[in-house]
Amino acid sequence: MTDDTSPVLESARKGDPVDGGQVVPHEPTEPPEPAGPPKKRRLLRRLMIVTGLILAMVFAAGFALVMERQITLNGNIERIPGAFPEEAGRPAKAVGDAQNWLLIGSDKRPGESGSQRADTIMIVHVPADRDRLTLIGIPRDSYVRIPGRGNNKINAAYAFGGPKLLIKTVEDLTKIRIDHFAALDFKGFVAMTEVVGGVDVYVARKVYDPMNKITWPQGQVHLQGEKALLFVRQRYNLPGGDFDRIKRQQAFVGALGHKIISRDMLTDPLKLNDFLEALTRAVSVDSGVTLSTLRDLALELRNIRPDTVDSTTVPTLGTAMVKGASIVRLDKKAGSRFYEAVRSDSLQEYFSDNGGLNDLQILP
Predict the structure, then answer these.
(1) Picking from 8-12, 36-40, 174-178, 201-205, which range would have the lowest pLDDT averaged per residue?
(2) 0.70 exceeded by the pTM?
(3) At 143, is the secondary structure helix, strand, or coil?
(4) Domain count, the chain
């Protein structure tokens, strides 16, 4: 009879392995690591969590600020309801993605009481490939047919019927479809020139402005604030009258545009914000224009430089007198070819064959 309490069996019952009747002792084991990470590891993890929370808060605050700025700037822009004439009878849309903006400058914003005559009238043609811009001046004294009002100076259309009648008049005259409308009041114009620090233009000869009693010296002239406004609005005592004023306005717009897209402006958030504040408070646009519209267009035109901005004036036959008033006679035959080039987005070919670009390097 076997003794159940033998050392071998006793050891087996205790868990020691048995090999050929021999007890094999357990290998010694390492003591378990203390639960949880070391102190330094815990500190690093907490630091990473806190840093992540701080970054998340910074990003959230930055996003909120951007959204607040966008909402504020978008709210600054005055929209003009019903700026466009009835769709029936309007010209066809531009070829491809080309756009035509009608830009005016006036003492008053659309809808304000009192007489509103457009001091500056300009079509800004944006080609489909976005590699150039063409500023097309329309003399304010151009003698045209205003729908429902008979023949008159074109700037009277704005006084008679605001943006809608002016757009209708321009479209009837040129058969060019206007995609967007923008009106700039001159107070805002002054504010924008202050923000960018003004621009420089070259004046070919000394000229005196008898209305404002100011003399522009020959040579480089710095234009900022009220001084810039006086320069672009001078009409009397210029050799070419309204034509020379158009050249001045186009030169200033080109110089201002170059200043806006300069590295100094785009890399200075405070200066850029100040400019956008001034711009959005000064401009009135059709209801289809949002801040996103302007931002997207600016990005599309990011490669535009002074030498890729062309300036011209609609073809004319000079001036004349009608009922005691000085008017500008438009050249219908030459105008027909020019307007077709705008509609077909082929202005570069037109200028190559016909000329017509304004030299803005030397101003009257």
Answers:
(1) 8-12
(2) yes
(3) strand
(4) 1
